[in-house]
Amino acid sequence: MRAGKHLAVIVSLLLVATLVSGCGIIDRLTGRSRSQVQVQLPPPETGTPEVSSGETKEEVKTTKVVLYFSDPTGNYLVAEERTIPLVEGIARATIEELIKGPGPGSQLLPTIPRGTVLKDINIRPDGLCRVDFSKELVANHSGGSLGESLTVYSIVNTLTQFPTVKQVQFLVNGQYVETIAGHIDVSTAISRNESLIKKEAQ
């Protein structure tokens, strides 16, 4: 009888221990599962996507032209190569560069009188180029036969580098002129003259 009671007590204790340990196991399993789920969650995105502006720099096309200026002695023309933007009216752009004068630091001298403005330029299909300057081409010219020759042929030789230009006709304020400084006849079209261009040996 007493042994039966002892057996009953032992069984009861085993059941209680099993229930308690079972609850602990369940809690531990549940907690582990939650932590596993939390670990597996993807981290929040903190970076910002790169935005492409889509802007591209437009390349400016250029070309090299030859400008003729006076040498330091004022006796010859000297070629200066210059890079300028490639535009449709390349002859106009080239003469405007000639009017600006030699590049910075150059020992060459300008051939176009100060204040001269290119008013118009027109190239005919037959190769005749009419170039119209402001009155300063005549009014501000320093004079002299050689100085006038350098002015005329710096313009003519600069323009005739282009295959579409064969001869040059001078105008001032839209009117034909006989001369610029009284020595060179510019009443008719003028062709290229390389005799004034300074050779390396000179």
Based on secondary structure, the structural category is alpha+beta
As a whole number of angstroms, the C-alpha radius of gyration is: 46 Å
The run of helices and strands is HEEHEEHHEEE
Helix % is: 25-40%
Distance between the terminal alpha carbons, to the nearest Å? Answer: 145 Å
Q: What ranges have pLDDT less than 50 throughout 5 or more consecutive residues?
A: 22-39, 45-49
Number of beta strands: 7
Largest sheet: 5 strands, mixed
Residue fraction in strands: 15-25%
Helix segment tally: 4
- How does the overall form come out from the CA principal axes? elongated
Mean pLDDT: 83
Oligomer: single chain
Architecture overview:
By secondary structure, the chain is an alpha+beta fold. It has a domain at 62-191. Helix content is 34%, strand content 20%. The chain has helices at residues 2-40, 90-100, 136-139, 145-159; strands at 62-70, 77-85, 118-123, 128-133, 167-172, 175-176, 190-191. Strands 3, 4, 5, 6 and 7 form a five-stranded mixed β-sheet that branches. It has a two-stranded antiparallel sheet with strand order 1-2. The chain starts with a helix and ends in an 11-residue tail after the last strand. Mean pLDDT is 83; it is low at 22-39 and 45-49.
Structure at a glance:
With 202 residues, this protein is an alpha+beta fold.
